Amino acid sequence: MNSIAADLMSSTAALRLNPSPPAHAVTLERCPQAAATARDVATRFLADLRPPVYEEAADTVVLVVSELVTNSVRHADGASCSLRLAVCGDAVVVSVSDSSPVPPVGRCPDVDGDGGGFGWPMVRRLAVATSVCVTPRGKTVHALMPFRALRSREPGGGAPARR
After folding, report:
1. So what's the pLDDT on residue 104?
2. Residues contacting residue 100 through CB under 8 Å, at least 6 positions apart
3. Cα torsion through 9, 10, 16, 19, rounded to 10
4. Whose CA is closest to 131, among 95, 99, 102?
5. d(CA 16, CA 13)
6. Could you say which residues of the chain have pLDDT below 50?
7. Residue 139: how many CA atoms within 13 Å on its side-chain side?
8. Which long-range contacts (CB under 8 A, 24 or more apart) does 114-121 make?
């Protein structure tokens, strides 16, 4: 386990002090606008957190939300998918559920066409951790996204988002 993951896991001690950390869930219609709606939901969720989330980290969380919802709309059957955002220490857990039991698979990106292949590898690279839980009703893809710990270690400490 790297030091970032260790810091995020140790920061979950705050959960014992606050038994109901901020969380939000929404069901999204499986349509081309689902990713845009998910981005709006994530942006509002992050803007309401205190202390404020660093802008670069917020942008990364919103990007991962968009990719996971886009993958669900593109590759799963069913009328809808669901998005859940939950604070876990200094991180946000992004969870997207759909009716397909098939987990995401990394593949060679299609650089010459519209075949995709960039989203899942990017999510895995940006997240501290990812997991896929398959059930008889489908799957849930989880991504643990830091939003405070990383930025504060950079020279100058960064600045919270002005959202």
Report:
1. 86
2. 72, 75, 76, 77, 78, 138, 139
3. -40
4. 95
5. 6
6. 11-16, 150-157, 162-163
7. 18
8. 116/74, 119/67, 119/68, 119/70, 119/71, 120/67, 120/71
